[in-house]
Amino acid sequence: MKRILFTAGIIVVAGAATAWVFISGNGDDDTVKNDRVVVERGNLVEYALAVGQIEPRNEIEVKSKISGVVNKVFAEAGDYVKEGQPLLEIRPDPTPLELAEAKRNVERSEIALDNLQREMFRMEQLRARDMVSDHEYQNLQRNLRDSEINAQLNRERLELLESGRILIGETLIESVIKAPTSGYILEKMVDIGDPIVPLTSYQAGTPLMTLARMDDLLFKGTVDEIDVGKLQEGMTAEIRVGALPGAQVKGELTRISLKATTRDNSTVFPVEILITDNDGRILRAGYSANANVVIDRREDVLIIPERLVSYLEDKSTVDVPSRNENGREETEVWLGLSDAINVEVVEGLEEGDVVLEKPLRSLASN
């Protein structure tokens, strides 16, 4: 009984294998009959992809001209401020040694000035009697002016250390930091109590806030070196913002870098795209985005899927139905613009012609 069941099992397995081989060997005929594509008219657009983010054209760092600590904060990140509006107040925080030195400098400069003024009074009396040369008198005048300036400078330094506010000529230097232009506060880098290093000719100073106008935005990104040779300034771009699915943001290519950079072992070129239409959406600095720069556009042309085309050296061919039933034959075509999915047919096919899918390769032999 066991021998009979074993024999029957072998027969079933062999029959199934034979049927599978038969079906596989005859599958091409069904593919030819069913997998057909009709040549039709459509539109094609060739793009160059740029990867980057949304940034304001100009981003300003606000810094202080005096040292001290943050005493008050009048605006926060995200606020819109107008030019001249208070942002922060810096409280002077001199060390006892700095304050003592400033007071001593004032005292020394005032004593020196008083002595020169006395000397000038005596010099004028002697000069009236023709007992002093013009050269000596002019030297004393020059020294007196220098002493007056030095005394004034030391008084201003002391006043600035003590009150944090001083008027030099028509320029007001004060501890209240005001907005240099109208715009949105993008970032606040300090809090109350933080020490502040002033901006001078020999040090960068502590950044307090960043400020930018959000109505003048750019897309800043990079394009692969394969595509950069096709780009020209003035080309339009369609920008897809990751945080705003469905937004139709448009722009214009305004800058193509002359120098490449290396990123992830590939060579890319930085580009800038001016955003001309935000589609009524709020765009925020730092949004990740992709930009499709329109290189070329064709409308109402003959198109077929590019997967149907076979390339051999400088020749392009497609398979079309032959006169024989279920047969196929190659025909040469001349192609134009491609968007990597569809390709323009310039010559070799007419609207309504049928093109066959490439035959599927079978693992089983006939």
Summarize the structure.
The protein is α+β, with helices and mostly antiparallel strands. It has helices at residues 2-25, 27-34, 96-128, 134-163, 225-228; strands at residues 36-38, 40-56, 59-62, 68-73, 80-81, 86-91, 165-168, 171-174, 176-178, 183-188, 195-196, 209-212, 217-224, 236-241, 249-256, 261-263, 266-277, 288-305, 310-312, 315-321, 328-332, 334-338, 342-347, 354-356.
What value does the Rg take, in angstroms?
A: 41 Å
DSSP helical segment count: 5
Which strand-content bin applies to the residues?
35-45%
The CA-CA distance between the termini, in Å, is 37 Å
The overall pLDDT, averaged over residues, is: 83
Can you list the strand order of the major beta sheet? 2-13-17-15-14-18
- CATH class of one domain equals Mainly Beta
Q: What is the makeup of the main sheet?
A: 6 strands, antiparallel, barrel
CATH fold annotation of one domain: Elongation Factor Tu (Ef-tu), domain 3
Low-confidence stretches: 1-33
Shape: elongated
Fraction of residues in helix: 25-40%
CATH superfamily of one domain: Efflux pump adaptor protein, beta barrel domain
Count of strand segments: 24
CATH architecture of one domain: Beta Barrel
* Class from helix and strand fractions: alpha+beta
